[in-house]
Design goal:
Layout lengths: L2 H55 L5 H43 L10 H35 L4 H17 L9 H27 L4 E6 L8 H8 L3 E2 L20 E6 L4
Antiparallel strand pairs: 1-2, 1-3
Helix pairs in contact: 1-2, 1-4, 1-5, 2-3, 2-5, 3-4, 3-5
The structure holds zinc ion.
């Protein structure tokens, strides 16, 4: 490949990532706000239950099932608060991706969010996301409680730490470019859905016999992880192949900023 073609290709890649990010930004902002709100609702239900069963049980054999029960109550009470906004965001991100790819390839494809494959992609992704979110929350809360019991903390001390942990979900700092857990979820879900939307269009193209290729594009700064760099290094591969990490497409992990580029297989 000539240096000029190289340069043009990286400009094209950056333009596509910029377009993606611009479309996803408002979706992420809105979803992060909803997630922070859902965590507050989760906290309120959990603390209410914890307060009801908590004071007498710390250090008792009945503590784990009682706390499990309080977490389950909070999960059930807030399920819709998590699920509905994630579904809405996934739909918007999928629609944005479909619009971008249809324009890019100039294909005659009337994408509709109501098509069964789009609906399945949205439902599946949102359900998986909520499951992951709930598992992480349970883990975090259970850790605080078991550490509190080991350290001989009283109920008030443990409850205070739990409140602090919930606050962190909304204002903490899990990664340098992402402020808190609510935002991390929003960025990850928007990216997942966007890539799922890409695939909906690309699969339509392969279904009519077009040979498509994909490549893994990083944002190219020094914070890109080694695994993503390795994926990018293989260049263009057939759409159905997996990247070296085993992924069909980005994001490789929560907060991964990579994007997948697609093209028709060159005839030369
Ligand atoms: Zn990445």
């Amino acid at each position: 490949m000539t240096p000029l073609r190289d340069l043009l290709e990286s400009i094209t890649a950056l333009t596509k990532i910029w377009k993606r990010d611009r479309a996803l930004k408002p979706i992420e902002t809105k979803l992060a706000r909803h997630m922070a709100k859902a965590f507050r609702a989760h906290r309120d239900t959990f603390l209410q239950e914890f307060e009801r069963v908590g004071p007498g049980i710390l250090g008792e054999a009945s503590a784990p099932p009682a706390i499990e029960g309080a977490l389950e109550a909070a999960y059930q009470a807030t399920l819709a608060d998590f699920l509905a906004p994630i579904e809405e965001a996934a739909g918007a991100a999928i629609a944005a991706a479909a619009k971008h790819r249809v324009a890019e390839f100039g294909i005659d494809y009337a994408f509709d969010l109501k098509n069964p494959r789009a609906i399945a992609a949205i439902k599946d992704r949102a359900a998986a996301a909520v499951k992951e979110i709930d598992a992480t929350t349970r883990e975090e809360i259970a850790r605080i409680i078991s550490q509190g019991m080991e350290g001989g903390y009283n109920y008030q001390q443990v409850a205070r730490q739990i409140v602090a942990k919930y606050d962190e979900f909304g204002v903490g700092k899990p990664q340098a470019h992402i402020r808190n857990r609510a935002e991390l979820i929003a960025v990850t879900e928007a990216a997942e859905a966007y890539e799922a939307g890409n695939r909906l269009v690309i699969d339509e193209m392969t279904a009519v016999g077009l040979e498509m290729e994909k490549s893994w594009s990083t944002v190219g700064d020094d914070r890109v992880s080694d695994g993503c760099r390795t994926n990018a290094a293989v260049g263009w591969i057939p759409v159905d192949q997996t990247f070296p990490s085993g992924h069909q497409h980005a994001p490789r992990f929560p907060g991964c900023r990579c994007a997948i580029l697609y093209r028709r297989r060159p005839t030369t």
